[in-house]
Design brief:
Protein name (chain B): Thiazole synthase
Structural class of chain A: alpha/beta
Number of domains of chain A: 2
Oligomer: heterodimer
CATH class of the largest domain in chain A: Alpha Beta
Number of strands of chain B: 10
CATH architecture of chain B: Alpha-Beta Barrel
Active site (chain B): 98
Function (chain B): Catalyzes the rearrangement of 1-deoxy-D-xylulose 5-phosphate (DXP) to produce the thiazole phosphate moiety of thiamine. Sulfur is provided by the thiocarboxylate moiety of the carrier protein ThiS. In vitro, sulfur can be provided by H(2)S.
Order of helices and strands of chain B: EEEHEHEHEHEHEHEHEHH
Number of helices of chain A: 9
EC number (chain B): 2.8.1.10
Distance between the termini of chain B: 40 Å
Number of domains of chain B: 1
Largest interface: A-B, 30 and 26 residues
Structural class of chain B: alpha/beta
CATH superfamily of the largest domain in chain A: FAD/NAD(P)-binding domain
Catalytic activity (chain B): [ThiS sulfur-carrier protein]-C-terminal-Gly-aminoethanethioate + 2-iminoacetate + 1-deoxy-D-xylulose 5-phosphate = [ThiS sulfur-carrier protein]-C-terminal Gly-Gly + 2-[(2R,5Z)-2-carboxy-4-methylthiazol-5(2H)-ylidene]ethyl phosphate + 2 H2O + H(+)
Strand order of the largest sheet of chain B: 5-4-3-10-9
Strand content of chain B: 15-25%
Amino acid sequence: MRIVLRGAGVAGLVAATCLAEAGREVVVVDPAGVPTRSGASHLAGGMLAPWCEAEAAGAVLVERAAGAIDWWAAHVPGVVRAGTLVVASSRDVPDLARFAARTSGHERVDAEAIAELEPALAGRFTQGLFFPGEAHLDPRRALDALAGALRRHGVACLEAEPAPLPGDRRLDCRGTAATDALAGLRGIRGEMVMLSSREVALSRPVRLLHPRIPLYVVPRGDGRFMVGATMLEGGRAGPMTLRSAVELMNAAYALHPAFAEAEMLELGAGLRPGFDDNLPALIRDAAGVWHANGAFRHGFLLGPWLGAQAVSALD
Amino acid sequence: MGFSLYGVELASRLLLGTAQYPSPAVLADAVRASSAGVVTVSVRRETGGAASGQQRFFALLGELGVRVLPNTAGCHSAREAIATAQMAREIFETDWIKLEVIGEADTLHPDPFGLVEAARELTADGFRVLPYCTEDLVTAAHLRDAGCEVLMPWGAPIGTGRGLNNVYGLRALRAHHPDIPLIVDAGIGLPSHAAAAMELGFDGILLNTAVAGAGDPVAMARAMALAIEAGRAGFEAGPVPMRDMAAPSTPVLGTPFQ
């Protein structure tokens, strides 16, 4: 029996890969192309950071993310295992203690250790946390690689729905586009900036603690950096606001003043899909359609977990 | 004695902010544990100017059966705050507004001039204004002249968790305005801070970070509710005055006049 999978973002492509590897016949459908160039996956940070993310999401995230870094390293090129560095400005140092108390898998670093990890940040921060077990990837390249591998293995990647066959099973991975079908799903707005700078070099994602926004700068190689990301409830779509742009750019500037001369390559805004508990789930709706959705900030981190759930559910 | 704001009776003296929780599910559990009857929502900072009040996040607040008090957090002028209040009225279909006009970036100190100006215009436009202010007596008098029937002085700057920075000032504010509800808004970090404010005779507490940022937000929500109830009960019970020398509760034999 064929599985018609809708949605070629990270949830869909990882699920399709897991299903194909389990010997299932899968067809991937997305009107925006495979992989899609719109939606949350396209704007993702690409941090594989279970220990940092557990600060808000709790230990369940670390459990479900087990094996995620290895999964990505086995499936796509460009997974960098260099950890995550967390720093705070001097006025926000109490937040660093709070972050440390809420997370595990880190070591405290002083000015000297920070300079050793990231020479560009030498002399700029006196205290931080280093999470050596974390990794990052470039989401767009990773999704290209997954889609390429699916095609090479004969998985049909379509922009239009195929003619239905008897016994078709359906798996919906469309993120916030599925809000109408899933009453508990909501969109959490996120905004990001892509910068290009030859003056700053970073080896790993750097998080700058901020009272409201989980701010981070992720190096993407070739002097490109992704700065993210806001978190706004209410489901508003549309372009980035000036306030968000200013806050994200200020964060990059606070991390390193040379970012002031960076070129702005892209301002992106989109909606992450989330359930009430901000954890992904595999759900069967009244029409018998399975949904792999609600990955929130963790599409790449929890994609492999969600894919494994889909394989069991659609057995 | 009951607690009412603009004629609306409220069972709980705790008003809870909705920002910075780990998830909406935790927020909902915290609201339930706190028994808060009012929750504040930042139109700008949390929703980015929400397009639809029907969205899941708001539906969830609706399911809690609480009254939504939209706020103008992030506004730095009377104009901005007025525009945000008008947007909030459309989204949440309420004429209540927690008015915030920030005057200084490091302390988020309210701008008294912008606050009074915005309060006057919004009241004239039919809003019920709950201004986030300081314990300053002159500003308080102007806010009342502008039509505010509730005042919400800070305990300490937003998010600092420092408690009541100026107990003398808060006591004076209470003494000067015995006839309207006064709510300590911002700066509460511990249940004891909330209890202390209630013991001073304040009518309620509005807080957010102390619960949302706690290791267990739901447990802290309950702790705050208990502290507020205890503080209020203590105030109503008529506390004994403080004195310098020991006052033995039973006479000490042979020293009747010492």
